[in-house]
Specification:
Helices cover about 35% and strands about 20% of the residues. By secondary structure, the protein is α+β, with helices and mostly antiparallel strands. The model is unreliable at about 20-35 and about 340-360 (pLDDT under 50).
């Protein structure tokens, strides 16, 4: 739970942050879904070209931006100057000025978020003109430009437009902001907003977009769920003072923000937008920093943030959400509007946190969950003494994943497509009173023994004090207990990164149906389920992409496995029967692709054990990072100061630090032949000083393949983009053949990297032999390769053909070939169950 006050320096007031309240039960008013088609032109719209307004004036047949004086102004030049004096202590004064309307476009069916960048630049330039013209009038002391968007904020006409009030008074928010900015300037000789920007950039978690001269962020002190500031980096009193280059940067950042707003829930996102510009009263406004503020009223798709007792009665704003989590949601979305996307875009709406377990909870009817609960409650269960009776137990669930496409290209910034499996890991957790962390991992198969592990209080304190490196060494001492690093690692990271404390002790029970060493991410499922349960139990809620990121830290830094983030993202955010489209730069959710009707994916286990920490996977990863380092050198990029763990850092405007951003043509024409086929680690370190990989280290005594591991993510990313487009377009027979061919090409590339195996090669060949006649179109090795599972693409009715392939493989090799079918949602969608045993 979050109980915190945050100081709002631009309003000089406290904002109460109680983020857990966003998940409270709600039986009050919700907004209806009013999504509907809007025509380009509406005959009775007073803002459309050629129509007659309420004043009787006919609009011109405008083709761009159209500005006119408001026919129903709230202030006007003819306001009476001689007012009757009010009684007693009351005061009044004339409210004079001009009110104008700015139509963005003649198109009635568009919004600001759907305009092209040049149109947004033109709009900013129009705002500049209006500020200069109106502000130059001697009777005007303030020019307020704002847009009310959406019915929920009282918009009377959806035609895309904003309003401008040029008044003889200064609106109160700006008046207060001017005063405190002036005081801050006088005390520190720098602008307050410059320090706000510096703090946001230093933290980084709330940043949304950035260009050379502009930045956008959800502020630390945000009052509304998705409140956003769009700010020029250089202090200017008004928009009118920005150069042409600054206007272009500001327009680009503004567009990126409002597009992500719409992409969040695939709807026209309502907001109040206000330009905070200095008054035009002729005074010097030292320290004032022009910026644009967005105040969106929704905290969920159909749920408003209501101003109630704390705000109206108490005078302090209460925020029901965490600015860090809301920024992560927006940042994870693409910057291409969902109506225009050529690649799939889907909303990243946070799943409602399910309520605590109750009679009839549908999650309890999931087969693995009901079995797990029955085991906990069985009168004769050997676990009856493990958990204290009559005390709540918290249960979390996270699925494994089938790597449909992408695999080892994730750490090089590729797009990946991941399907959450029906098989999952369940974790039950309860606080104890003895200070020890006791873990029992039940065997998935009959005849196997359960694994147990105990971490004493003193040992836990030593690991917390020693850091992740010390914990990695401690768990590496005994292979028999190395598995516990995935569980305890999640706890250590939750403590180190989020301040969680488990000194009272914990009892943790694990039941995993995700088989180990099969390439279906049993480790991520265990980490995510553990951290989800612990975060809830210890009062440090972590959701969405942040949950996945922290679990990756656990696997990289405590377990010591150099994995990318796609496994944890799928275990946390995955949706049943949807492919998670994730751009790993580092973790941008591009959408959730529902499987087209009649199409399905399966996994077939080769029976050959796979490990991300294995030498082949680590060597290929190292080779890819060596290749990037050499290409950066060939491109004239020079390293900056060392990064984490001594790794190198680059200011890379060409590819943003990711191999996947090179095009295949660029790589083939400029760099492929200039890369060595292989290179000894010692020579590489001598010539190039290291790589940008903060996780895996280069062994001076080992020879690494370089060219092929470098080529793989570049070509794989191109394959992924094509595969996703085909899938999103409900592929016909020719499209299915092309998708299958892309999977076979990905498999061949794995093998060329040295990550194939005889077993997985045979499975792929058996799928190819069965072919279209059996409803099968493609197959490839998955995950880290070198064994594990093969992903298969086929028609929905091809399950018998998949079973036949598995059976033939088992007969030929003597290995059991289990088939993975079905799908289930990730840990964030499941939430947690709480029950009393």
């Amino acid at each position: 739970m979050t109980w915190e006050q945050r100081w709002h320096p631009l309003r000089e007031e406290w904002v109460i942050v109680a983020a857990h309240r966003n998940h409270r039960p709600w039986t009050g008013e919700t907004l209806p879904d009013r999504a509907r088609g809007v025509p380009e032109y509406v005959a009775d719209c007073p803002l459309c070209p050629g129509n007659v307004r309420v004043s009787g004036t006919r609009n011109p047949s405008y083709t761009g931006i159209f500005v006119f004086d408001n026919d129903m102004p709230c202030v006007g030049p003819a306001a009476p100057a001689d007012l009757e004096a009010p009684p007693g202590i009351y005061r009044n004064s004339p409210a004079r000025g001009l009110a104008r309307v700015v139509c963005y476009t003649p198109r009635h069916d568009l919004t600001l978020a759907e305009l092209d960048l040049p149109q947004i630049v033109a709009l900013l330039e129009a705002w500049q003109v209006q500020y200069r013209e109106l502000g130059a009038r001697p009777e005007v002391n303030h020019v307020l430009t704002f847009e009310n968007k959406g019915e929920v904020v009282g918009v009377s006409n959806p035609h895309p437009h904003c309003q401008i009030y040029a008044t003889n008074f200064v609106f109160k928010t700006i008046e207060n902001e001017v005063a405190l900015c002036r005081r801050y300037w006088q005390e520190r000789r720098r602008a307050l907003m410059e320090d706000v920007i510096a703090a946001e950039r230093a933290d980084g978690r709330r940043l949304l977009a950035e260009r050379d001269s502009a930045i956008a962020f959800v502020p630390y002190f945000a009052r509304y769920a998705y409140e956003t500031f769009v700010v020029p980096r250089q202090a200017h009193a008004s928009l009118a003072d920005l150069s042409a280059a600054e206007v272009r940067d500001l327009a680009a950042v503004l567009q990126e923000v409002i597009v992500r707003f719409d992409n969040l829930w695939r709807m026209s996102f309502p907001y109040v937008m206000a330009l905070h510009q200095a008054p035009t009263d002729g005074r010097q406004h030292d320290g004032f920093h022009f910026h644009i503020e967005f105040h969106p009223p929704l905290r969920k798709p159909n749920l408003l943030k209501y101003l109630a007792g704390p705000e109206v009665g108490g005078g302090s704003f209460l925020s029901d959400t965490s600015p860090e989590e809301k920024a992560a949601e927006l940042r994870a979305l693409p910057a291409v509007h969902y109506k225009r996307a050529t690649e799939p875009v889907a909303p990243l709406a946070p799943a409602p946190r399910p309520a605590a377990a109750r009679t009839g909870d549908p999650r309890e009817r999931m087969s693995d969950v009901s079995e797990f609960i029955a085991l906990l409650r069985a009168p004769q269960s050997p676990l009856r003494d493990f958990f204290a009776p009559q005390r709540p137990v918290t249960i979390a669930r996270a699925p494994g994943r089938l790597d449909v496409m992408g695999g080892i290209a994730d750490y090089s910034g590729s797009l990946v497509l991941q399907l959450p499996l029906g098989e999952a890991t369940l974790v039950a957790m309860q606080p104890s009173d003895d200070g020890d962390v006791r873990v029992v991992s039940l065997a998935a198969d009959a005849g196997q023994e359960a694994r147990t592990f105990t971490l004493r209080r003193a040992e836990a304190e030593a690991l917390l004090a020693g850091g992740y490196g010390a914990a990695r060494q401690w768990f590496g001492r005994d292979p028999a207990t190395a598995w516990a690093a995935y569980v305890v690692g999640a706890l250590l990271v939750l403590a180190g990164e989020r301040g969680a404390r488990f000194g009272h002790g914990l009892r943790i029970l694990v039941r995993s149906h995700v088989p180990e060493a099969k390439g279906v991410s049993s480790s991520a499922a265990l980490e995510v389920a553990t951290m989800q349960a612990a975060a809830h139990l210890l009062g440090t809620p972590v959701e969405g992409a942040e949950l996945a990121r922290l679990c990756q830290v656990a696997e990289n830094c405590v377990v010591g496995a150099p994995c990318g983030i796609m496994d944890q993202m799928t275990a946390a955010l995955g949706r049943a029967d949807h492919l998670l489209a994730l751009l790993c730069q580092p973790a941008e959710v591009r959408g959730f692709l529902s499987l087209p009707p009649g199409l399905d994916f399966w996994g077939i286990d080769s029976g050959i054990r796979h490990a991300v920490s294995g030498s082949d996977y680590t060597a290929v990863r190292a080779g890819a990072f060596m290749g990037y380092r050499i290409i950066a050198d060939l491109a004239g990029l020079r390293p900056l100061d060392p990064g984490p763990g001594g790794s190198l850092r680059f200011d890379d405007p060409l590819w943003k630090g990711y191999l996947a951003n090179l095009t295949p043509q660029e790589f083939a024409e400029l760099y492929a032949e200039r890369l060595p086929e292989a290179l000894r680690g010692e020579e590489f370190l001598r010539r190039y000083g290291g790589s940008t990989d903060a996780v895996a280290r280069i062994d001076p005594g080992r020879t690494y393949a370089v060219r092929q591991p470098t080529a793989h993510p570049i070509y794989e990313h191109a394959r992924l983009r094509r595969f996703a487009r085909l899938l999103f377009g409900s592929p016909d027979e020719a499209g299915l053949r092309e998708m299958g061919g892309l999977m076979y090409a990905a498999h061949a590339s794995y093998s060329a990297c040295g990550l194939g195996s005889a077993g997985t090669d045979r499975l792929v060949e058996l799928v190819r032999e069965a072919g279209e006649a059996a409803g099968l179109y493609g197959a490839k090795i998955t995950g880290g390769g070198s064994g594990g599972t093969v992903a298969v693409l086929g028609r929905a009715g091809a399950a018998p053909a998949v079973a036949t392939v598995a059976s033939r493989y088992a007969q030929e090799t003597g290995r059991e070939a289990a088939v993975f079918a079905g799908s289930s949602s990730g840990a964030c969608h499941f939430g947690v169950l709480t029950l009393v045993c």
